[in-house]
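Tokens in:
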């Protein structure tokens, strides 16, 4: 019988630290086969991301994106994740799309931060006051419970709204100053031009980049890339597909050898000194959706 997991039912059983441990364990299995497909009707889109991991099963994440929906009082994005068992390909579960996306995206970044950020990090700057920014606060709070959070947003009213919603968050008026004072900078914006400057970075910081997902998008400049040790979640989903890495690679600012590791070499996710700057690019991927979905199902069933 197929298990159906709604957002509220699924989230009630989840834990950020356990999720990052599950993501790490997922990368001990054979490398995932992944692919994406798109169908279009005018401005409307059906996106499907699928992954197959030997020993874990198959996951297909489907999303419909209808830009005209908000004008009619309907959310723009809908979807679901179908999870199939590894032994026989039997449909095991249908899981809420937004639940998987929330926990996959923030958990992806948290796994890197647990390995790369200084354990004594106490000041965390969130750049971007959207839904992802709120999820990052929840995730980072689990691993850094004593941290003080600050949020900066291009539209300050949105940062103030987030601070009113979540107790204890301060609002930054000046991004350069806020970056300079932070131990961890986690950024989730829709920027196509770099918002963060490498000249602002300080020794010992960890930088976590989530927002850019298209070839024309970047959140940070070339200077930062040349000052930091660089890591990605997946070579396959970042280097040739997302502007954050694709553009500087094409321009010769960095080379592929400058990317220390992805999650399939998780043992290399280490900080060499307290003074070095580490930078992680969260590119996502269907394999991470599959790992997260399997974790959600296991927790739902009490595994």
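Residues out:
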């Amino acid at each position: 019988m197929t298990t159906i997991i709604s957002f509220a039912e699924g989230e009630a059983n989840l834990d950020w630290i356990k999720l990052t441990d599950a993501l790490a364990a997922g990368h001990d299995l054979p490398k995932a086969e992944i692919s994406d497909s798109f169908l279009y009707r005018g401005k409307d889109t059906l996106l499907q991301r699928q992954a197959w991991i030997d020993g874990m099963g198959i996951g297909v994440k489907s999303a419909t994106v209808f830009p005209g929906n908000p004008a009619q009082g309907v959310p723009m994005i809908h979807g679901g994740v179908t999870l199939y068992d590894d032994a026989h390909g039997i449909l095991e579960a249908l899981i809420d799309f937004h639940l998987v996306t929330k926990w996959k995206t923030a958990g992806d970044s948290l796994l890197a931060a647990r390995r790369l950020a200084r354990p004594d990090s106490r000041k965390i700057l969130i750049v971007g006051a959207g839904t992802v920014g709120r999820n990052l606060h929840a995730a980072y709070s689990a691993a850094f419970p004593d941290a003080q959070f600050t949020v900066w947003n291009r539209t300050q009213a949105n940062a103030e709204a987030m601070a009113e919603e979540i107790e204890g968050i301060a609002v930054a008026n000046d991004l350069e100053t806020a970056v300079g004072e932070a131990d961890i900078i986690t950024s989730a914006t829709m920027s196509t031009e770099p918002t963060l400057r490498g000249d602002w970075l300080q020794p010992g910081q960890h930088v976590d980049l989530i927002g850019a997902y298209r070839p024309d998008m970047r959140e940070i400049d070339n200077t930062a890339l040349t000052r930091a040790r660089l890591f990605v979640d997946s070579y396959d989903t970042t280097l040739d597909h997302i502007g954050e890495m694709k553009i500087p690679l094409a321009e010769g600012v960095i080379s592929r050898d400058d990317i220390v590791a992805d999650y399939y070499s998780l043992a290399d996710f280490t900080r060499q000194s307290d003074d070095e700057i580490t930078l992680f690019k969260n590119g996502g991927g269907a394999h991470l959706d599959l790992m997260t979905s399997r974790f959600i199902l296991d927790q739902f069933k009490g595994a």
